[in-house]
Design brief:
Number of domains: 1
Radius of gyration: 14 Å
Strand content: under 5%
Number of strands: 0
Structural class: mainly alpha
Order of helices and strands: HHH
Organism: Sphingomonas abietis
Protein name: Glycine zipper 2TM domain-containing protein
Number of helices: 3
Mean pLDDT: 80
Largest sheet: none
Low-confidence stretches: none
Keywords: Signal
């Protein structure tokens, strides 16, 4: 049970730290939850947590690249 709470707390901290990228976390959590559901019993929560972290990282990198492109274009 502690693991489940921890797996839910980590994505919530990421969302709280960067609300602009929350959309990526929600999309990743949805996809990860579905994938985890198909893997087996109890993996949906872990899949949602991992999906949130991966999508958050992806969108953060994408935002950083867009910012660098805008600054280089000036």
């Amino acid at each position: 049970m502690r693991l489940a709470i921890t797996m839910l707390a980590v994505p919530m901290l990421l969302v709280g730290a960067s609300p602009a990228l929350a959309k990526g976390c929600i999309r990743g959590a949805a996809a990860g939850g579905v994938a985890g559901h198909f893997v087996g019993r109890g993996h949906a929560i872990a899949g949602a947590a991992v999906g949130c972290v991966v999508a958050h990282h992806h969108y953060a990198q994408q935002a950083k690249a867009q910012k660098a492109a805008r600054e280089a274009h000036r």
